[in-house]
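agent> Task received from the user: take the single chain below, predict its 3D structure, and emit structure tokens. No templates, no multimer pairing.
agent> Plan: (1) validate residues, (2) run structure prediction, (3) serialize to tokens, (4) report one or two observations.
agent> Step 1 OK, no nonstandard residues flagged.
tool_call: predict_structure(input=
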Amino acid sequence: MNPAIAYHELLTRRRFFEGAGLKLGGLALATLAGRPAFGSSGGAPSDAGSVHPALPGFPHFAPKAKRLIYLHMNGAPSQLDLFDYKPGLQKLFDTDLPDSIRQGQRITTMTSGQARLPVAPSKFAFTRCGQSGMWMSELVPHMQGIADDIAMVKTVHTEAINHDPACTFVMTGSEIPGKPSLGSWISYGLGSESDDLPAFVVFTPTFPKESQAQALFTRMWSSGFLPTKYDGVALRGAGDPVLFVKNPPGVSRDDRRTMLDALGRLNQRHFERLADPETQTRIAQYEMAFRMQASVPELTDLQGESEATLAMYGPDVRTPGSYAHSAIMARRLVERGVRTVQILHRGWDQHNSLPKLIEGQCRDVDQPTAALVTDLKRRGLLEDTLVVFGGEFGRTVYSQGALTKENYGRDHHPKNFCMWMAGGGVKSGITYGETDDFSYNVVENPVHLNDLNATILHCMGIDANRFSHPFQGLEQRLVGVEGAKVVEGLLA
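)
tool_result: status=success, residues=492
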């Protein structure tokens, strides 16, 4: 027997009917809309049907947020220099971290060989912001202006101590590669409100050239064991946002439509014969590519934005590939029905020269991030759009390498770090959780990353413990097979 056929015969009945259901759901929606479905009689164009239908029964309950914008600061920003104010450390400059604080916890090999672990207070001034009185560093003056719009979580923690597994954990709920990303899970469950743009879009903007950047891997926006049609689509910063989105010379849009319809019918016959879900992926991807030929040029044209709006995002907003440009694009995407937008900004791995390097990083992201929240709010979008900002772990209170009051570095610290949320479903103007005087251990209201992801899904109307997909004999979940709890104290 042909090995390919043998493989497909091993597909479970559940997976077959899952794939068939998704296809039939799309056809049903096309019919309800009064539009011809893909491959319908007469060879009619298939600008029809929901490309991204929700699973039956989703959402589980009425959502507070319909969309997610996830701002990931890859490399781990220092909570001590941004959001976790510890004024008492000034008196402890260059003293040794007490054993009673470390409690024998493992540290990385980058500092485990140091003779000392000297305390390095932040050199940056902090101030209370807004009516909430939230503490923020002088490094983020624009974020200070949105303090009353966000929920600051000071006690996020993870098990991973190195960047790659930690970032994989943040995005997929597991340190082990191969699991679907958060955006892919959401696309799989909820679909998209847009038929002309992907359900899940990713940006990997530029960063200050002097910064130290960790590599990004496509698994951070991959669908893992879910069908690949739920992969995130990365929009490029230079050249065409999507490769080959334009027709070749001599090929008209009508010609492309005719070819696509013929190919779609062939792929549909293949699916009916073998029931391979990846065949549906090809159909969906080809169709989406066709639709994006019309939608992407309009999306990326900023001429319709007011000068006041563009100025709010900062001087780099007109530079494709910049963080500022990615931020305004995120707003434009969710306006057009995209379910999840993820921006991964690199360069936050500051083992040395932290004060100099973090200033550059903050100049890159501070103003556009605050502008994004403000822009969403004034357009009435923030109330049902969830914005998340943070990294993969925190930084140590002790210095890595040479220490002066003006210069220090910080090692990796998974025991606690800060993230914030704003918008649909979460309280505004609150600080949740507390750390010890060294920002080393959680002392009140710990928030595990799985619990944070469960809370994100909850805001979007999904019970994380009921949201699963069968793989390798387990009902796999974003929050792990063990499950997770929603952080009720963050919910509005």
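agent> Step 4: summary for the user.
The first helix runs from residue 3 to 9.
agent> Done.
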